[in-house]
Amino acid sequence: MNEIFLEIAVPVPLYQTFWYRFQTKSLENFIGRRVIVPFKSTKSYGLVVGISNSIENVPVEYRDKLKDIIKIDDFQVFTEKEINVIKKISDYYLSPIGLTVDFFIPNILREKAIKDPLAFKVFNINENVELKKISETAKKIIQIIQENQEVSYEDLLSLGFSKRSIKSLLEKGILIPVESSIKIKTPVFKQPKTSDYTPKLLESQIYVYDRFYFKDRLKAYISLIKKYVKTNKSVLIVVPSIAFGNKLYKDLSQKFENVYFYHDGINPKLQFEIFKEITKNPSIVIGTVSSLLIPIKDLNLIILEQEHSSAYKVLRSPRFETKRVLYYIHKEKNIPIILASSILSIESYLINATNLKKDKDVIKSYVEINPFKSTNKTLNKLQSLISEKGRTLILTHKSYYSGFIYCPRCGWEAVCPTCDVPLKTYIQNSIKIFKCPSCKKRFEYFKTCPECDFKLKETGFGKEFVFEFLKKSEKLRKLLDSNKIIVESSLKDILQFESFDMVINLYPDFILDLPDYRSNEKFLRSVISPLTVAKDSYIIFSNTLENWLAENIGTKSFDVNQILENFYKKETAYRKKNKLPPFLKLVRFKIVFKPNQKEYVEKVLKEISSLKVYSFSQKSNSFIYYFEYKSEKEKQTIKVLAEKLLKKDVDVIIEVDPKSF
Predict the structure, then answer these.
(1) Strand, coil or helix: what is 74?
(2) 619-to-284, 422, 498, 593, 642 alpha-carbon distances in Å
């Protein structure tokens, strides 16, 4: 028997690995295997990230208290290449390596038996349920899910929401589990046909691909995949949501063999079967972010579809940005990466990367801008635009973003007498006022209708409101029932697989009022993206758009390419001048403490005077810092601070490069 020493990453919030003894007959490589180890007063799973034949290589503090490994699996979960990427992710995002491992490891290999029926579930919002009388906590959960399309149970728990709150929303039918809409059979590998012809594959570099219509990008992917299949190479297509992956899986599995869809919403046993199969045989893999570090057999290309999606900034530790992880994978495995979207993110635009799009896009639909006036006038205009022929998509907005004030009894609306635009409610010096978002005039706030003295109501110009209005017309109700009219709150990713004769975009202007440094980019995306699914006509109701975009809109030769190029230059210059991301580096550092820990926390915080505080807020049991850093050395100072707090069981939540601040 040979005695060896293994370095183990255990899924605990501590910035360290742990060393254990193991007696073995063979000297095989145990790197990347799952183990069961004694940990404190219990057992824990872990992953082997280091190995030594000599105790001299074991840190001194472990040598006198080495314990034996209880069990080591035969199956290698990750190779040394994935372990190297895990270490880079942990270093950059200040994440304990054990928690980084825990994010990527297949669900069935995690420490404990799955007793919680909600474990590994992924949730979306049931938009057929009217949101009435819900708590502030419920509103926060709903907003997070709407912004990220889908959110896992583990994500919500890591953000501080209780199981009780999540379960309550499920019982009310507001949250619904997201599952594969397709039957994924137990994988059976089929050997691809061989060919004497050897196609030319992409060189190993990072590419961008902003072909405007997704269907055109999909054709290009299919052409690329054919080349890789002929050479027995694997391809991974990363998608932002399970719903999007379901559609893509259905398309690709009709054209290719050995297509698999890997995500956290699958039954853990089936998920692991897929994991093992794609590590043994070349495959076409569709996956969410949890698939990034699977050691796929002969992986030779990764495509990040919808690269701009907020879903690619992970909500729980290690809270990474997917594009950075792909950069690490590219460097470690020397394989090409494609960052693809109809409208690239600012970050991808700034990458010095080859664009696979060789010619300009030609826009297929006519574009028309109409002013957004009072609600009744706008909806009556909308009603007159809809044709019985073809399909119509209407895009509305969430109620917590924009609202209008009206009387439920007589229908009176609070509109600006000058602009005929719905007034919004604002708070100024602790007093409510009405304000016109167009001319900025202020008006006295009142609670009752000036026409009939009935209590006014504020509601969102959302999906439910528009849906109910359209149902008043018998003709439109029939079109709704036959799916000739689709009403959606936003342009969801899965709509990229469809096309509509007419797309109507109702008042995207609200985005510009959001306290978000990305509001200009989000506004542009909300205005331009619907064109990707419009066949004949695209109608926008907006009071803002014409001021900065109308000169480029109005004919079928609408030059999206030039509009986007001008925007990227302007937005890049604006962010650089005002020191905004990606020209500003921040770490969000949240400390949650118990009353008896506050004195210690305050003492430790006095030791970080060298760090530049960008902003700070506090509650009775928490502090939130946004630290600005200019070098990795400065960022490591934040890690030292976190280590001191974690060792005293103080909760610390760290997000490097936060989405908002």
Answers:
(1) strand
(2) 49, 36, 47, 10, 19
Contact 339/209 with Cβ under 8 angstroms? yes
- Is 183 exposed, middle or buried, given 0-12, 13-18 or 19+ CB atoms closer than 10 A? exposed
**pLDDT above 70: residue 632:** yes
DSSP letters spanning 107-121: GGGSSS----TTTT-
**27 class by beta-carbon count within 10 Å (0-12 exposed, 13-18 middle, 19+ buried):** exposed
DSSP label at residue 596: G
- Residue 477 one-letter amino acid: R
Q: What is the predicted pLDDT for the residue at 190?
A: 58
Q: How far apart are CA 263 and CA 547, in angstroms?
A: 43
Q: In degrees rounded to 5, what are phi and psi of residue 623?
A: -125, 140
Of 179 and 532, the structure prediction assigns the larger pLDDT to 532
User: pLDDT tens for residues 62-117?
Assistant: 888 899 999 999 999 999 999 999 999 999 999 999 999 999 999 999 865 456 78
Q: Is the dihedral of CA 592, 598, 603, 609 positive or negative?
A: positive
Measuring CA to CA, how many Å separate 129 from each of 175, 176, 246? 9, 11, 23
* pTM score of the predicted model: 0.88
**How far is CA 320 from each of CA 47, 157, 326, 489, 571, rounded to the nearest angstrom?**
20, 17, 11, 28, 24
User: For residues 229 and 284, is the Cβ–Cβ distance under 8 A?
Assistant: yes
Which amino acid is present at 347?
A: E
The DSSP string of 391-455 is -EEEE---TTT-EEEE-TTT--B-B-TTT--B-EEEEETTEEEEE-TTT--EEE--SB-TTT-PB
| Max CA separation in the chain (angstroms) | 92
